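Hey L., structure's done. Input below.
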Amino acid sequence: KTATTRLTLARWLLAAGRTEQACPPLARADILSEAEQEITRATALDPTSSALPILRAKALLATDRAAQAVQLLKAKCPGSDRRTECISAWIESASRAQDGAALAEVARLASAEGCEGASCAKVQWALGEAAQGMGDVHGAVKYFERAAIEDGSARRWRQVGRVALNLGESARALHAFQAALALSPGDMGIRADLEKARRQTILTLPSP
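Output:
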């Protein structure tokens, strides 16, 4: 088997191992162990493959070793030719490890290397979800806004508005719903969200 074949098999095994309901615990452990062995065999065949650290990190995550995955990707993601995939795995690892410092570091890398379009939106939204999961809700909204700017869709801006509204950031929600409505002026659901944000904004104004 070639390194590529072994990596493909490792991906399949990791995906199978994640389906815990379809896998008895002992069988799942065997599947994940076999995935790690395939990654090791692929490493011997092609130690420079940029897919290796990403798959190894996923194997670590599957076996509840998120902190180790963070350290691995911290060393391997800068300069990787699989930038979006590597950064996404790093974000997931930081989130699972509840490591705010690691999340901030990967955010800085994503910003420093620059990005645009759908891949950038994906990364920024993942950063927002991770930040929200760690309790940094206001930081999360900033990432969500960046994702919406890059994505440019009414759906994404509406998501930003709803998150901001739930956090009580009515001005941000208002801006997001206005952006969404500009992109999809016939959407009555967005209009309803916009009116709700307007009412909340009025309620937060200081009394005369």
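The mean pLDDT is 89. The first helix runs from residue 3 to 18.

-- N.
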